[in-house]
Here is the input.
Amino acid sequence: MRRLFPVLLVLCMALFAYAPFLILNAPYESTMGLVQKIFYFHVSTAITMFVSAFTCGIASAIFLFGRRPAADRVGFAAAELTVLLGLVVLISGPLWARKAWGVWWQWDARLTSTLVMWLVFQAYLLLRRFGGPGSEKLAAAVGLFGAALVPFVYWSVNMWRTVHPTTNVVPTLDASMRGPFLWCVAAFLCLYVLLLAARTELEKRRSRLDELYLALED
Amino acid sequence: MTFLSTATLVARKDLLVEARSREVIYTSLLFAISCMLVFAFGLVKDGRVIADAAGAILWITIAFAGTLALSRIFDRERQNETLRALLLAPTPRAAIYVGKFAGVLGLLLLVEGIVVPLVVLMFDAQLFRHTGWMLGLLLAGSAGYAAVGTLFAAMLARSRSRGALLPVLLYPITVPVIIGGVRGTAALLQPEADLVLARAWLMMLIAFDAVFITLSLWTFEPAMTE
Amino acid sequence: MDFTSLTFSNVSRHFGRRRALSSVSFAVHAGQVVALLGANGSGKSTLLSIAATLLEASSGEVRYGEVTARGGGAGLRRAIGVLGHDLYVYPELSAAENLRFFGHLYGLDKVEHRVAAALGAAALADRGDDPVATYSRGMRQRLALERALLHEPRLLLLDEPFTGLDDPSSLALRGRLAHLRERGGIVLLTTHELEAIETLVDAAYVLVRGRVQPLINGAGSLRERYRQQVEA
Here is the structure.
C-alpha cells in the first residue's frame, strides 16, 4: 500500500481536477436544470458511503471471528469514514431538495436510509469512545450488524415511502450523463481508498505507541 | 448439557427469577401504559386518534418498554456477575444467548398481551379483524427486536454508559422492525385491509428475524469473551 | 478433561495503555493451596480471570496440564470452579434453587442428592428454601463456595473468600480447602486475611503492579514477610 499511495493520490487528484469540466459539459436535466448537477457528487458520495459500510462490516467480521487486530483498525477507520461520508450526503441532499423541490427534507427513501445507516455507524463510534475497555469487540458486532442491515433498511424504507421523483437514478440515466457520473464515482472511490489507508495507518501508529508505552513500563 | 437443554434451563431460570419479584413485568407494563398516555396527548384530536397513529403508538410503546425491560434484565445479571457464572459453565455459549432471548421474547409478548387490547380499546383500532395476521406481525416483530436487543444488552452489561448506549445502538438497528410493524399494522387497519401488503411486511420481518438471530448466535461468544 | 497443574508462562495482559499483568510466570500443582497477595489494583483479579478462562492473556501462555486455555473449551470449564468477588448467585432464588440450577447447568447426576449435601456442608439446610436476598454476607459466601464446588472441579479459584466470614465460618472454609488439597485439588486464592491462611498455604506469591514474585521464605508470619517484601 505504501508504494501505491502516491500513485493513487496523483490519480485521485487528476480525477477530481477534471471532474468539474465533465460536469459542466454534461447535459442539463429537463426539470431541474443546473441544480441537478449536484447529483454527480451527492450520489457518488452515497455509493462510497455504502461501500464503506460494507468494508466496516467485513473488517468487523474478520476481527470478531478471526481475531486479527489489523482488521479492527480497518473497521474503525471505515466506520469513521462512513459517518463522514454520510454527513456529506445528508447535507448535500437537503441542499438539493430545497432548490429542486422547495423543501429541505421530505423523508425521501434514500436520504432516510442514509440517515439510519449514519446513526448505526455513529453508534459504533460512540460505543468505542464511551463503552470503556473491551468495547472494540462490541463495536465490531455493531459494525457487522450495520452492514447486514443495509438491504433491510433499503427495502423497508423504500416500501414505506411511495414514489420519489428519481428512485432509480443510474439505470434511467441519460447516456451522456452516465460518463461523467461514473467518472465521479471513480474519483470518490479512489479518494475513499486513500482516506481509509491513511486512517488505518494512523490507528496502526497509535497501537504501536501503546505498545511502546507498555514496553517503557517494563 | 446439550444446546437446547441449556437454553431451556436458562430460560426457565429467568422465568422463575422474574416470577419471584415480578419487577420487570410490572415496571414494563406501567411504563407501556404511561407511554401510550403520552402519545395520546400528542395524537388524539377531538377524542379520536389521528389516522394510522394507532399502529405507531402500539409499536413505539413496545420498543420503549422493550428497552426498559432489557436494561433491567441485564442489570440484574450484572449485579451479581451471574452472567460470568453462565459463561464459565461447560455449555455452548450461544445456548445461553438463546435462553435469554427466549426469556426476553416471552416477557415482551406478555406486555403486548396487555398493551394490544388497550390500544384496541383506547384508540378504537380494529386490530383483531385479522387476528392471525396481527399475531404474526407481533410475533415476528417482537422476535426481531428481542434478538438484537438481547445481544446488545448482554454485550453492554459490563460497559460504562450502558444505560445511554443501549437505545443509541438498538433503535437504528431495529428500524426495519419498527417500519414493518407499523406499516403492516396500518395495512391491516385499512377499511379494506390490504392483506397483500401486510404479507409483504410479514415476510420482511421473518427474513429479518432469520438473518439477525443467526448473526446473534454467531456473534455472542466472540463478543462476550475478552 | 483433567489435569494436574496450572502453569502461567510469561503471561501479560494490558488494557489499552494500562498494564495489568507483566510477564507473570508460576505454577501450581495438584494437592497445593497457593495464595496470591497484593494491594488492591495489583492485578490479582485479572490473574484469576485469566486462570478462569474468562479473560485472554495479551501475551504468554496459560496451560492446564498440557492443554492451553483456548484449546480446552467446554471440557476445561467443567474442571474449573470459581468463587468470585461478586458471588455469582441469584438473590431472587433460594439456595436450593440456585444449587439445583447450577447442578443441571453443569450436567451433574443425582442433582438433588448433591444439593442436599451442599446445603449441609454450608450449614444452610434449614434456610435452604429462603431467597438468597435474605441471607447475610457470610451465608451467601458459604453458598457461593458450595456452588463453586458442586461439580467437583480440579481447579478452584477463589477471590477474597474470607471476606465477611465470622470465625466459625472461616475455620470451616479452611477445613474445606485443606480437605480439597488432600484430595488432589489445585487451589489458587487471593486474600488480605493473611492470618486466616497462615497454616493453610503451601506457597504464596506477591503481586506488585502486575509483576509476580514468590513470597520470601523465612521466619515470621505471612503478614510480616509480606510487609517486608512489599516495602522493600
Remarks:
- The radius of gyration of chain B is 18 Å.
